[in-house]
């Protein structure tokens, strides 16, 4: 048996969009089940996201703390953002987010992992990049607003983040997946074996 997720699409006999927001919407599909019955499925339609695990030369990860209203928490996270433009190259989006949220640039980029955040209720796909060889970005800092105006930035040793994840103290999806994936890569084939930054991403196809 090959342990690999495979694309598949069950027949939809009806679909509506009961809510359409600024960036996301809610879709309702009537889906034909294997036994021939029809089940209704509601889910959030999402443009996709990128996230950046930025690792400096001292083995520290760049993290930020931001208020997230749906969960009523300030969460420690890694830089991340939406794929605002359909078909946008995710690497370009990740570089933009690292600049806007941390005023940092990186010379070495690789794909750390790709995930569906909540596939039972949302079609969001996230590509998490590993960024290394960090330096301060040139020019003026990006002007932030709303929740981002209250962000805190820090550089935290990877081991401390892993400890916080396993202790149940850190909960952001991309941070959790990113730091554990990085730890596994370091213990396995090494960071040089990670996929290149422009590796295909079937969940959100793009032009290089």
TrEMBL record:
Keywords: Hydrolase. Pfam families: NUDIX. Gene3D superfamilies: Nucleoside Triphosphate Pyrophosphohydrolase. SUPFAM superfamilies: Nudix. CDD domains: NUDIX_ADPRase_Rv1700. One of its GO terms (molecular function) is hydrolase activity. It comes from the Bacteria. Residues 44-183 form the Nudix hydrolase domain. PANTHER family: ADP-RIBOSE PYROPHOSPHATASE, UDP/ADP-SUGAR PYROPHOSPHATASE. This is NUDIX hydrolase. The lineage of its organism: Bacteria, Bacillati, Actinomycetota, Actinomycetes, Kitasatosporales.
């Amino acid at each position: 048996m090959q342990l690999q997720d495979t694309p598949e699409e069950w027949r939809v006999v009806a679909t509506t969009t009961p809510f359409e927001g600024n960036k996301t919407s809610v879709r309702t599909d009537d889906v034909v089940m294997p036994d021939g019955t029809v089940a209704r499925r509601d889910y959030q339609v999402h443009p996709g996201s990128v996230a950046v695990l930025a690792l400096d030369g001292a083995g520290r990860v760049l993290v930020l703390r931001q208020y997230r209203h749906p969960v009523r928490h300030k969460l420690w996270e890694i830089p991340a953002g939406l794929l605002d433009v359909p078909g946008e190259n995710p690497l370009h989006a990740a570089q933009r987010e690292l600049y806007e949220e941390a005023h940092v640039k990186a010379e070495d980029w690789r794909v750390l992992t790709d995930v569906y955040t909540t596939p039972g209720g949302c079609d969001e796909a996230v590509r998490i990049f590993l960024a290394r060889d960090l330096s301060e970005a040139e020019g003026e800092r990006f002007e932030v607003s709303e929740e981002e105006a209250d962000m805190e930035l820090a550089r935290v040793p990877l081991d401390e983040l892993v400890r916080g994840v396993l202790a149940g103290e850190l909960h952001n999806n991309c941070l959790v997946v990113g730091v554990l994936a990085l730890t596994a890569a370091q213990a396995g084939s090494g960071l040089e074996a990670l996929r290149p930054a422009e590796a295909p991403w079937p969940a959100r196809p793009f032009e290089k």
